Amino acid sequence: MSHFYAVAFLAFTAGWCLCTADVVDFTSCLQFFYRNWPPKGLAGTPICQRYCNQYRFATLYSRPRRSPWFSAYVYAVPGGKRPTASWKFEPQLTYPGADGNMIPFPPGPLDQNVVESQGVEPDYINSTFSRGHLNPSLHHHTREDRYSTFTLTNVVPQKVGSNDGPWEILEQIVSKTLEAYCLGEAYIVTGIIPYQEDDHWLKNHRVAVPEYLWSAYCCPKYNNSLPEQLKDAFPTYAAIGRNDRNSTEEIVPVNQTAKKQFRGYDVRQMPLATLEMYLKDRFNTVVSVFYEQCSGLD
Questions:
Q1: Residues in the chain with pLDDT values less than 50
Q2: How far, in Å, CA of 210 to CA of 200, rounded?
Q3: Which of 2, 129, 171, 273 is least enclosed by beta carbons within 10 angstroms?
Q4: What pLDDT was estimated at residue 1?
Q5: What distance in Å separates the CA atoms of residue 253 and residue 248, rounded to the nearest whole number?
Q6: Contact, 111 vs 1, CB < 8 A?
Q7: What contacts 293, CB < 8 A, 6 or more positions away?
Q8: First vs last Cα of the chain: how many Å apart?
Q9: How high is the pLDDT of residue 296?
Q10: Which among 157, 155, 153, 45 has a CA at the least distance from the CA of 103?
Q11: What pLDDT score does 295 carry?
Q12: Is residue 137 a contact partner of residue 150, using CB atoms and an 8 Å limit?
């Protein structure tokens, strides 16, 4: 890309940003983590996701995979229908001096520097994968917060049988549980588990496909009058969902009686400690999702 076009691109994205960079560390968006404490054990590029000049959530992004390791956010009771929002990208992944607000993909040919730096819409077109939100619009109230989730730095290639089936049901269950029984802030982190050996990719090594998705919430202040079936669901709980119906069943078993289109995309709910055990096994390092396992203690 010529210097002229790079300058023009920066002008289009609101010019050089003299404020704190959003793609360096989580300093500007620690409010999306319990006790201002990001998960430990995973390496990547932190993004403070900014939309309309306001931070909305946080993402740990993998540049080599062109997809996120996790997104972290504070749950809010949903409002309204799922928005139809334009897909956006993170300009600071491409040009560190660009404005930090995510912006919609412009019409016409894509800037090749953007294509090289992150996932883009053509990666998903005519593939067998949907764009699976890690931070779902369902878990937010305001229109701006919901729109902000439609950035490709917040999505991974997810099979439709998972995205429209068991994983969507999990998102709804978490929302209803937190709305009914969480009395304070609820912090959610949702991420992925890569394949153990050979990574799977979209479009010839463009975007890495995860073998599993995982999610965990932390609600330290909750209603103590919990129904029996939810006694273990507070202050924290977790889940892992299959993204490959051919995966083995050690982590998440398959319900053979499920509807055909959803079979093999099961979700297994589990304690946080069990999730962290599986993360340690796959990443070969200790992964801690919440400060002090969301104990609520100082």
A1: 1-19, 298
A2: 7
A3: 2
A4: 43
A5: 8
A6: yes
A7: 236, 272, 273
A8: 51
A9: 65
A10: 153
A11: 85
A12: yes
Closest among 34, 269, 63, 275 to 167, alpha carbons compared: 269
d(CA 22, CA 24): 6
Q: What secondary structure letter does DSSP report for 182?
A: B
Residue 195: CB atoms within 10 Å: 16
- Are the C-beta atoms of 247 and 212 separated by less than 8 Å? yes
Global model pTM greater than 0.85: yes
- Are 34 and 290 in contact by the 8 Å Cβ rule? The answer is yes
Which residues have CB under 8 Å from 127's CB, separation 6+?
Answer: 157, 202, 203
- What is the predicted pLDDT for the residue at 297? 59
Which has the closest alpha carbon to 174: 186, 162, 183? 186
Cβ 141 vs Cβ 76: under 8 Å:
yes
Rounded CA separation 154/67 (Å): 7
Separation in Å, CA 230 to CA 188, 192, 276: 18, 25, 20
Dist CA 155 CA 93 (whole Å): 15
Helix (H, G, I), strand (E, B) or coil at 221: coil
Q: Any idea of the CA torsion for 23, 24, 27, 33, to the nearest 10 degrees?
A: 60
Q: Are 242 and 170 in contact (CB under 8 A)?
A: no
- Measured distance CA(275)–CA(271) in Å, rounded: 7
